[in-house]
Each structure stands twice: as C-alpha cells, then as structure tokens.
Amino acid sequence: MTHDPDDPVLAATSAVPDGPGEAPAIDATHHTAALLSVTDVRKVYGTGHTEVVAVADATMAVDQGEFVALLGPSGSGKTTLISIIGGLLSPTTGSVQLGDTDVTSLSAKELTRFRAERVGFVFQSANLVPFLTARENLLYVASLIKGGSRKAAQARADQLLEELGLAERGRNLPEQLSGGERQRVAIGRALMNDPDLVLVDEPTAALDTALGRQVVELLRREVKSRGKTGIMVTHDLRMVEYTDRVFEILDGELTHVESPSALSH
Does the global pTM surpass 0.85? Predict the structure, then answer.
C-alpha cells in the first residue's frame, strides 16, 4: 500500500520552593523511574546573526501514568519541544529517551516506525482525514503497522469509539461531527495503536470552555486508565488543573515546574 507522504496522519505517524528568584525546571524534572527523559535538548535554526534558538537546553522527565502540561505563550517553543520528543524533529543537540529507546539516535526509517507504534498525536485542529468516517480514521492508523490483524483493529476501533461516547457516530464523516466530537475521534486515533506516549498540541484552542474541559478531562482519564504517559501543550491556565504537573516554557527555556494548584487560580 502506498501512502501520500504529505498525509497529516502519516506525518504525525512540586511547587516552586519559597524564597527569591525562580527555581529552574531541572530541580523537579529528574525521576529515577521516568518513562520519558529529555536531556539538554536544544534546537537552533540558522547560524551567526540569523541564529534563532527555538528550544534552549531543555531537561525534563515524565513518569508512566503521568499527564503533564507544557505551558507557555505562542512562540515559546512548546510545539517545537514536543515535536522533538515525538520524533517529528531532530534536536541540534541533546537526547530524548523513551523507555529503553534513544529516540534521537534512530534513523529516518526507524523514526517512522517509532511514531506509528509508540507515539499518539492529538493536534490542535484534530487533522482528521476528511473523506474517511470516524471509524475509518482510526482504522487508517492501524493500517500503518505491517502485519497487524484487521479483525483485531476493527474490534479496537469499535471499543475506543464506545469508550469515547461515539459508538453511534462511527459512520459519520468529520464534517458531520461537532468540534468536540472531532477531538474525541482524534483522541481515539492517537490511542489506536496502544502507544506509550501521547502528545497533545493545544487541544482546546478551537473549543469553548465547557467543551475544552470535557476534552481535557477525557484525555486525562484515558492516559491514567491505560497507564500511558501524556504531555499536553497549552497556553490556557484553565486547563492545567487536570494535569499532574505543569512545566512552564518561555523563549525556548523551561523555567519552572509547578503543581497545577499553584497556577489555576
């Protein structure tokens, strides 16, 4: 089967201590049993006077079963960092380790397989394939894995749609779904291949507050109940209360790691 290289699915395939000054993120980022470890990751574009540092020596660790937020304004480096974590971009320097895999040492072919099998992506605008039904969007992801059982994939797609409250919407095209329903399909698609890591980029940007809360609550529940590791990129303080920890990023630098209660008021 030949896939369009431009297809969006394939392409995707502690509070701060008291006292003066800011506590660096590294103080609360190292966990000895972390599933995900990011060490001194730096991403630089251009050279000389045109050099732009998109991510500056970021270090963080996230445990299995943990759902954390990466909080920062537009242009802060949030999306660049999770793109590196998910194997969509290569860092200029530094390393990313997921379990026993050094992501930054993988070849292009290995990265394609890594993304398809071990990472689930949920994008800001859902990015569903418009001419496929909700169920077919989930099954398409399964088709990227060679040797998988079609019958098992169909059963898993139906199970996910049921869990996400979409059992009656499986035959609907994306244009026939509400914004919240499209995001739920995107969550199901991200979970379809039982990934270790779920990366979520601004999932509430196109939703009102009530729908946004529903989507983030659903993400938290799915990450926790399935023992996954989840990172949600957001600039919305209202959504951090659903996460376990909040990493703050500004101008490419991780500056703090906070408890949600310290930020949500």
Answer: no
